[in-house]
Amino acid sequence: MIDFIRQQVLPHFGVTASAKVSPLGNGHINDTFLVRWPEGEFVLQRLNTEVFTQPHALVSNAQKVAEHLLAKHEAGEYRLSVVQPVTDSQGELALDLGDQGFWRAITYLAFSHSIEVVADAAQAESAAKAFGHFSRALSDLDASQLEDVIAKFHHLPGRIAQLQAAVAKNSQGRLKECQEWVDFALSQDELLNELSEVEVLLPPRVCHNDTKINNMLFDKRDMSSMAIIDLDTCMQGHLMYDFGDMVRTFTSPEAEDSTNLARVEVREPIFAAICRGYLGELGEVLSDAERQSLWLGARVISLMIGVRFLTDHLNGDVYFHIHHENHNLERAVNQFTLYKSLLSQSDSLKAYLK
């Protein structure tokens, strides 16, 4: 892969084959590399077009979001750095090599640092403030200007239907080993009913849609918030899901694929810090219905990502990258355990949203 990038991809970006190319991050979907040469550096990605079937829409959305944030930054209304697209030698946002990949480059931020597990409430509040600030800056960008890069991305009924289809097919013969968790996921009718009543009350927003802790970069020099990255799923949506994904990825002391389930739980001080940071930034931007939906978003996202991991396990691991056998099943069980923790602490956690 590295030799191919040097010989076949970098020349299109005006970079010599002698550049240093190294893997970057641990994303589940795309292949990401850091490219460095004496005159510069950028991040290069090969987009997974099995997942992102309309990659041109993805890079177009990312450009529109970056342009909007840059304008806010120049006006003194956005304090974070902005990750921007890097065009190829023809001025294009991406390079389509057909079977050899769909490639795009974005700026690399020096001194940036990402984390996988939140250490304390201060980190959680800092990251939540950054995501809230990001959403506030985009609150006046017309959401209809962005295309859906993945149809019904945060659509729990559709994700449940996909799980049911995977169960019926059982293409890999894996159903027996995870039947207990399938039954659990398919028993959450009450949550689906609540969602159908609430979602129709929410305004469309430009959302990040993947507010994992590792999509907020810290400045390693002082661990202050630096930038929001991974704009691949920026499109129209509801803010309750951005809030929910922060809860999902910030609150557990264990990574999302940890099998140490005794430690997979929602840390109340971290949840409280998310609420302080996110609500403190968004303030009056949120409608009453949106504010009231946040607790629902936290529950839906934790359940939904568990359903998605479980579905991919049953289908033979065709969506998320795995690193060992049963990796997606381990992820699913982890997320269902976190969801159960949310339910068990419902009364105390909801108080922080009032």
From TrEMBL:
Residues 21-255 form the Aminoglycoside phosphotransferase domain. This is Aminoglycoside phosphotransferase. It comes from Shewanella loihica (strain ATCC BAA-1088 / PV-4). GO terms for molecular function: transferase activity. InterPro entries: Aminoglycoside_PTrfase, Kinase-like_dom_sf, Pseudomonas-type_ThrB. PANTHER family: AMINOGLYCOSIDE PHOSPHOTRANSFERASE DOMAIN-CONTAINING PROTEIN-RELATED, SLR1880 PROTEIN. Pfam families: APH. Keywords: Transferase. The keyword GTP-binding does not apply. Coiled coil: none annotated.
